[in-house]
Amino acid sequence: MEKDLSTLPVRVAFTMKLKEGYRAEYIKRHNEIWPALTALLYASGVRDYSIFLDEKTDTLFAFQRVIGKSGSQDLGQNAIVKEWWRHMSDIMETNPDNSPTTQPLKEVFYLP
Questions:
Q1: pLDDT above 60 for 7
Q2: Which residues lie closer than 8 Å to 59 by C-beta, 6 or more apart?
Q3: Where do the DSSP E strands lie in the chain?
Q4: In contact, 48 and 65? CB cutoff 8 Å
Q5: Whether residue 106 has pLDDT greater than 80
Q6: CA distance 54 to 64
Q7: Residues 6+ apart with CB under 8 A from 31
């Protein structure tokens, strides 16, 4: 019997980059993530959000499941998100608006 994949949340993956020497600080700030930000992410449909670190390159790999049509990548106009970006901009590679530089990843395999 074939599984109906149309009912599953959308899976989103992307990379970000830490500035050298900021691994511990990045982890500390995420351990202290603001409740208002987590509530916003949840309200926007973000679930099962994980960030992994490649310690050889300081590359961050992010994965999330998104219920609905928007996720964390669509919250850039929100004041809480803008403040979080500013808070993180000293330890990550960022765009001129302080948003982290991200590289979306193309899914090439999935085993439900």
A1: no
A2: 15, 16, 17, 18, 53
A3: 10-17, 46-54, 59-66, 103-104
A4: yes
A5: yes
A6: 17
A7: none
Question: Which pTM does this prediction carry?
Answer: 0.85
Q: Per the residue annotation, which of 11, 30, 47, 86 is the catalytic one? A: 30
Dist. CA 94–CA 97, nearest whole Å: 8
| Model confidence pLDDT, tens digit, residues 43-63 | 999 999 999 999 999 999 999
87 is catalytic: no
Burial tier of 63 (Cβ tally within 10 Å: 0-12, 13-18, 19+): middle
Distance CA 77, CA 3 (A): 36
CA-based nearest residue to 88, from 21, 26, 40: 26
Q: Is residue 94 within 8 Å of 100, Cβ to Cβ?
A: yes
**Number of C-alpha atoms within 13 angstroms, CB side, residue 37?**
17
Q: Which amino acid is at 20?
A: E
